[in-house]
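Input sequence (434 aa), recorded before submission:
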Amino acid sequence: MSNYLITGCQKLKGTLTTNTSKNAAVVLLNAALLNKGKTTLYGVPKIEEVYRIIEVLQSIGVSVKWIGKRDLQIVPPKKINLDQINYESAVRTRSILFLLAIMIHWQDKFIVPQPGGCRLGKRTVKPHLFALENFGIKIETLRKFYQVSAANLHPAANLVLYESGDTVTENAILAAAKIPGKTVIKFASANYQVQDLCYFLEKLGVKIKGIGTTTLEIEGKKNIDKNVSYNLTEDPIEAMLFITIAATTNSEITIKRCPIEFLELELLKLEKMGFKYKILKTYKAKNGKSILVDLKTFKSHLVALEEKISTQPYPGLNIDNLPFFAPIATQAKGTTLIFDWVYEERAIYFTELNKLGAKVVLADPHRVYITGPTKLRANEVVCPPALRPAAILIPAMLAAEGKSILRNVYSIERGYEDLCSRLQAIGVKIEKID
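Predicted structure, token format:
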């Protein structure tokens, strides 16, 4: 595994551009299998999570190839052979769960490997099973696989999701997309990747009402066979990483192509903490739907909020953005309470900041108290086996005096493309080492 050598306390200035979304890319790569024609996805991030999905798709006979620098062309075969699936790649990504909903449109019976991905406590798949059973899908959990039977498919007239999760919402949408008749999904996630999936399916001819809300009405289309292209939208979680770097290092930088609709509450919280920024420009994304902004950050004096910082489904504070408040809180005057109510074991990873001199107290598996401002110091730290808790170590190390080593950065490279060279452009001293 690779490591990062990071020299902190550098003066940062310049411009960063937000890449397209990891979470949208992985679901759209799978959703392309709903289409018998050629699908071209523009602006796909070249990250480890995408590579794992490509390896899985190619192993089952799907033609996936890069055209140009960051565009992917996907053409399904006449018949998919799950017996040949790349098991090692499949179990390294939680996105393999999308095959539960995709493959029902190809086969009556099949098996899918159980997923991997971030280690964040008890991440049950029961919400997926509960959702898909509404379509007549039967799923039996074996030791390493899910055994699926889908002989009697029908639309789900009143599907209430067990939880408002992103992937479970997407799986319900994927199942409904090719089942004729109207499916109604309630308590749906309205997050950015769900919206991207809906916009893509609309281009395939699937009719969807309620995009951006918690109730979706989907008119399934049995036969989809057309050449289609789609531009992925930008990643609010990557934009938040860049904002966090600016806030934690007290730097003035410009961040382009931020999907503002999915950052508004995060920025409001930061504004109330004393963070200063200005929106320079507002415009539409290439998909013609999402709204982007360019923003400039300024030097700020941060103070802790009196109330806790926690997440809610969109349009609330994004669950993947919550960890970034931890390194920011180390530089804010006072004590910040971060409440990570969704995952049992993610808040524990925030205490890794203590190895850099932070004052993080774990109250229980969901809550941490962080006292600042703290002068951070360099150290050698091993990345947690989870993407966002690993990523928050970067802004902390950038604010720390001296040279730090961040080891085993695969967790980070699952979600961020070419991060070293992009950060070097704003004066970050970071390099990949063995």
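Checked by second reader. The chain has a mean pLDDT of 95.
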